[in-house]
Amino acid sequence: MKKIKATEITQNAISLIGAQWMLVTAGTPDAYNTMTANWGGIGFLWNKPVAYIFIRPNRHTYQYIEQQEKLTLSFMGETYRQALKICGTQSGRDIDKMKEAGLSPWITENGNIAIADADLVIECRKLYSDMIRPENFLDSAPIDTWYGEDDPMHRLYIVEITGVWARN
To answer: Rounded to two decimals, what is the model's pTM?
Structure first.
């Protein structure tokens, strides 16, 4: 992997996140979890390159994100679609997702866990988080579509991009 600047990310963020999906990974080398996500974005806020992601509190990875200051976003090629499905449908409470998905961890130079098999890794530091609140929706259609009575709302995380690595 080659370290690049955030401004050198050439992939379309909507395609990366919405179509290819990403693995959100948080924790320490001794205890971490990863999960598939396809809600989020990449942009510029507060004079910083940022990403934003949404995680439900009932996801196992949530506790690791809450406990740590940093997390990583790993983007995989299409050959890893099955691995992404495993990481998105199975809980790290019940299985070793990395083993089941055939993935390998990679520890960044800053000591954060990412996915060694990724084509692109974005290392991030949390800047802001808040729960999505039903009363703040201006259009209630997403509530009806994405949240049932027993489904918790997502937590929004805005994270500063602190490092980017791309496969050569």
So the answer is: 0.95
